[in-house]
């Protein structure tokens, strides 16, 4: 038999709570609620208030610089003034359009503690198995912000899920060529390596004009892989991508500390939108690292953590299945399981069918 409290007592308890308790509950809800205010603020100017701010900014930055006089000089030396006009110099307004897409949101996150107004369409994902920054490909007007993000997070390895020509233009995919953001950063491409599984590695040098001279240059490795969005992703290509990423991280740790212990580095992962392929790769890399260090992995918990930190991730079954497909292949590659084991073979076949089914639904417009 269940004992229930009287209705009057229940109502009394629910309606006589103090204001402080309500405020505490509200604060907890607000803390748990993810916001995209910074994303909206850095999008296209919308509404009368945004347009008014833009117009006011332009007017405030518009200054008269000189007066131009148009005159006619006669043969006898007399000069007749026709008109006088002020030329005005207009300073560039703040860039509102910092997002590549208006429908791919980005959770609010202060990426630069020294400048809270700094904004990139990016989020951090820090774990005991690797530290990552996941971002969209920069636009022409945000390449400087992209390089600044790489500098403040001490990024030495970049994983690019698209060919170099589609990476956003923050580096030039030709040996000896440089990309410069005036008085801020220069990214110079030193060497290009064509590697196995269709990967291309660019060894670059990132120079900061504001850093001390002895610390103004860093070696950056950019690994480019043409990874499909909705089709079957090669697990071998994904694992080779991880191997290069880990190798560059370990090399940097050895050069910095003289040991591989406590190697703390940040890897920048980007595609175009920075959601589907990037999240799937990062989650798979974390789970593969879990296998190497603990002999087991947790798919759901890792994906949940990713979903809490990066908007629009884990919105497609295809990405979830693809990460598992890569992890299972990696487990066989490092001999955690046997490739000939019946259960493993069946699991890989099931995952492949599920991925292809998702791809077919995408093509015929019936995707979940």
Automatic annotation (TrEMBL):
GO terms for molecular function: protein tyrosine phosphatase activity. InterPro entries: Prot-tyrosine_phosphatase-like (IPR029021), PTP_cat (IPR000242), Tyr_Pase_cat (IPR003595), Tyr_Pase_dom (IPR000387). Residues 97-331 form the Tyrosine-protein phosphatase domain. Coiled coil: none annotated. Residues 242-321 form the Tyrosine specific protein phosphatases domain. Gene3D superfamilies: Protein tyrosine phosphatase superfamily. It holds the Pfam family Y_phosphatase. PANTHER family: PROTEIN CBG20935-RELATED, SECRETED PROTEIN. This is Protein CBG14908. It comes from Caenorhabditis briggsae.
């Amino acid at each position: 038999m269940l004992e229930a409290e009287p209705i009057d007592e229940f109502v009394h308890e629910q309606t006589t709570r103090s204001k402080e308790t309500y405020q505490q509950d509200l604060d907890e809800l607000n803390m748990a609620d993810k916001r995209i205010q910074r994303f909206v603020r850095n999008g296209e100017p919308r509404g009368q208030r945004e347009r008014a701010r833009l117009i006011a900014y332009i007017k405030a930055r518009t200054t008269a610089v000189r007066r131009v006089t148009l005159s006619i000089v006669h043969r006898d030396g007399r000069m007749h003034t026709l008109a006088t006009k002020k030329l005005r110099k207009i300073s560039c307004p703040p860039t509102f359009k910092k997002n590549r897409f208006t429908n791919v949101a980005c959770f609010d996150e202060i990426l630069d503690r020294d400048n809270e107004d700094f904004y990139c369409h990016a989020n951090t994902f820090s774990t005991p198995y690797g530290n990552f920054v996941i971002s969209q490909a920069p636009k022409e007007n945000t390449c400087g912000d992209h390089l600044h993000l790489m500098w403040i997070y001490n990024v030495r390895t970049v994983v690019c899920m698209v060919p170099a020509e589609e990476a956003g233009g923050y580096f030039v995919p030709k040996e000896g060529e440089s990309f410069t953001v005036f008085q801020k950063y220069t990214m110079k491409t030193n060497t290009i390596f064509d590697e196995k599984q269709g990967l291309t590695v660019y060894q670059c040098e990132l120079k900061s004009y504001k850093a001390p001279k002895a610390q103004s240059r860093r070696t950056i490795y950019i690994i480019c892989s043409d990874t499909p969005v909705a089709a079957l992703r090669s697990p071998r290509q994904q694992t080779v991508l991880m191997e290069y990423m880990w190798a560059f991280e370990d090399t940097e740790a050895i050069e910095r500390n003289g040991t591989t212990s406590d190697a703390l580095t940040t890897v920048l992962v980007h595609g175009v939108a920075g959601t589907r392929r990037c999240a799937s790769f990062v989650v798979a890399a974390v789970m593969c690292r879990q296998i190497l260090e603990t002999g087991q992995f947790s798919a759901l918990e890792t994906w949940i953590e990713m979903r809490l930190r990066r908007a629009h991730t884990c919105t497609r079954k295809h990405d979830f299945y693809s990460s598992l497909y890569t992890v299972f292949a990696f487990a066989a590659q490092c001999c955690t399981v046997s490739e000939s084991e019946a259960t493993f073979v069946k699991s890989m076949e099931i995952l492949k069918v599920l991925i292809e089914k998702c791809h077919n639904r995408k093509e015929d417009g019936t995707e979940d």
